Amino acid sequence: MQTVLEVRALTKHFATHRAVNGVSFSLARGEFFSLVGPSGCGKTTTLRLIAGFEEPTSGQLLLDGQSMENLPAYRRDVSTVFQNYALFPHLTVAKNVAFGLERRGGLSRAAIAEKIARALDLVHLTGKEERLPNQISGGERQRVALARSLVLEPKVLLLDEPLSALDAKLRKEMRQELKALQRRTGIAFLFVTHDQEEALSLSDRVAIMNGGHLEQLGTPREVYCNPKTRFVAEFLGNVNWLGGAGVRPEAIRVSRDTLDGASAAIVEGQTFLGNCVHLTAKLISDGSLCTAEIHPQHCPFQAGERVFISWDASDEFRVP
Amino acid sequence: MKLRTIFLAPGAVIMLSLFFLPLLVVLAYSFLSRGPYGGVLLPWSAESYTRIFDSLYLAILWRSVWIAAVATGICLALAFPLALYIARAGERKTLLLNLVMLPFWTSFLIRTYAWMFLLRDTGLINTALQSLHVIREPLPLLFNTGAVILGLVYGYLPFMVLPLYATLEKLEPALLDAAADLGASPLVTVWRVVVPLSRPGMIAGCLLVFIPCLGAYLTPDLMGGGKTVMIGNLVQNQFTTARDWPFGAAISLLLMGLVLLVMRALGDKGEELL
């Protein structure tokens, strides 16, 4: 696949801390790539360095093989969707979308109008052209921000936690729409989020960041099922550390009957989560706690009951 | 009585007794006839108002308006970049704001005299230029319209800086990033995003500068040397040397009317901000 953006040993030191420390990765054309990590891990700084809002301390950024060094933000062919959208409050929806096109020059009025109409249609905002940002809902503002960037057909679209300002229901809807939008436009998306579920469900590839460096990079399946570090394993989901191996709760089987290789345990308690039950049991052998995710219909166990815990060897992973 | 009403009372009493009632007196005076040594006499007359339309007075009125407008324009041009700089100055903000307000620690009169010592024929600037043989004759820096405008700009610049700073400081930094991201160079960003969003501050600043400039009398009197008469000087003159109180009262009311018109022209926003 053709590389559109290459990040090489990117480093940014601030006076008080090292925000980004030798991060390298590359984006393929048309790829949905996520940078995920806890707050303060350097993911937003990485995005700002690519956009050109910050100067890197060292490292290289190549867009289509061309170095972006010394190229100010307004000359870079990437576009950002900001966390709080940063729509211009004094401009209507249509004028917000037109802002970038007008800066380009060489486009006729009619061509601009047509591009705006198409961009607004793409995000289902036709009919809201003359509204001001404070006259539309949060979800609509989000769409305007997307249209404003997409209309420029950037080589890479940078999204800085774009869904975090929306309520839970809308967030799930927008997630689907974002994915569809990316497929339809074929633009490479670099998506920054602290929400691992969002990253795993949307991305072609995920990079997990921690303390300014990249912990692991791979497809969602790879990083979830075969995490290379303890941090990645625990950041992406719940883990049971059983005899040095990590096992996800959903891979654990609980049974009243003893099976080959099963360990005896005592049920400590359970938490009902709606679509599943998290059952906690203490292994008799070494006293370690183990959580199993079980379908609510298949969980007849009582606290204090003796059960047998087992899992497939293929479901376990080892980290250094 | 409600607490709110009690809170209103001191202000209301002061405004009524010291502002509104005297204003009624001024209104009454403006419709009376002049006394021989100042003061007012019967009969009632509207002559003071008809006299304003004398071309001599209309010229003074026009001069006052354009001098105030030019001074306001210069203040705006100087204050906007300064306010923008201070708003983005981070930790040094407070220091810079205090420097803007520093001149208020000394009386306006003294500061005006200081300017006169700088600008007069034997002042610092002319003496320095002469001793450096740049000029032979002293430059006419004082006692002209330019000096009046300089004095007004100097005196009222902080009133433009402060409201502009207040709006610019609230400007979301992400908007500047967004403009750059969409391809706007820094200058285009200022023109297309910062200027439109600082309109309320500009209107407030322009009112705060234009209104006192329009009624200024100390600056034209001292720095204009009595040659550049503005409407404020005219009013003062009527109550002192000219001893024509009704005419002075009529001009003051006209000045108030002008100010109200300007505020109307700038829309309801201006009134809210004041």
Topology, element by element:
The complex is a heterodimer of chains A (320) and B (274).
Chain A: E1 3-13, E2 18-28, E3 32-36, H1 43-51, E4 58-63, E5 66-67, E6 78-81, H2 93-104, H3 109-122, H4 138-150, E7 156-160, H5 168-185, E8 188-193, H6 196-202, E9 205-210, E10 213-218, H7 220-225, H8 230-236, E11 240-242, E12 245-247, E13 253-255, E14 263-272, E15 277-283, E16 289-294, E17 306-310, E18 316-317
Parallel strand pairs in A: 3-8, 3-9, 6-7, 7-8
Antiparallel strand pairs in A: 1-2, 1-4, 4-5, 9-10, 11-12, 12-18, 13-17, 14-15, 14-17, 15-16
Helix pairs in contact in A: 2-3, 2-4, 3-4
Chain B: H1 3-30, E1 33-34, E2 40-41, H2 47-51, H3 55-87, H4 93-101, H5 108-119, H6 124-131, H7 145-170, H8 173-181, H9 186-197, H10 199-214, H11 218-223, H12 231-239, H13 245-265, H14 268-273
Question: How does this structure look, described?
Answer:
The complex is a heterodimer of chains A (320) and B (274). Chain A is of the alpha+beta class and 320 residues long. Chain A folds into two domains: 3-230, 3-Layer(aba) Sandwich (Rossmann fold); 239-317, Nucleic acid-binding proteins (OB fold (Dihydrolipoamide Acetyltransferase, E2P), Beta Barrel), CATH 2.40.50.140. Helices cover 27% and strands 32% of the residues of chain A. Chain A is built from eight helices and 18 strands. In chain A, helix 2 runs parallel beside helix 4 (138-150) and helix 3 crosses helix 4. Chain A is elongated and about 75 Å long. The two termini of chain A are 32 Å apart. The mean pLDDT of chain A is 89. With 274 residues, chain B is mostly helical. Chain B has one domain: MetI-like (MetI-like fold). Helix content of chain B is 73%, strand content 1%. Chain B contains 14 helices and two strands; from the N terminus they run αββααααααααααααα. A two-stranded antiparallel ribbon of chain B has the order 1-2. The longest helix of chain B has 33 residues, at 55-87. Chain B is globular, with a radius of gyration of 23 Å. The model of chain B has no long low-confidence stretch (mean pLDDT 85). Classes of the chains: A alpha+beta (320), B mainly alpha (274). Chain A binds chain B through residues 51-53, 72-75, 79-80, 82-84, 86-90, 99-100, 103-104, 148-149, 152, and chain B through 172, 174-175, 177-186, 188, 192-193, 196-197.
